[in-house]
Request: fold
Amino acid sequence: MLASGRTNNQIIIAPKNSIYLWPNTNLEYPEMIAEKYNRNDIIFMHIYTFFRYHYHENIRYIVADHSCSLNFGQIYKIMFNNQIYKEIMKTELILDAKEFLKI
Reply:
């Protein structure tokens, strides 16, 4: 169910409960797209606000909109965070499977 437009597609395929980084403070446009595709689980945040105030909070998958200008340090933090997120989710899936299978 891909749509026309890179932002639309990024929002559609973003992992559940992601933080979606937006290049400016006007979040109405991405929120409108998310609502259109029933992606109300995504948290939209201005890229500056995220790196300035929220990076240390709960680990969630981070998606940066294609139009964001990121420096190397920001790209590294996103990649590192997403790898940690994947490992946590893998561990939770394994634990859930063991509980389900009574292993």
Notes: The CA atoms of residues 59 and 85 lie 6 Å apart. The chain has four helices and three strands.
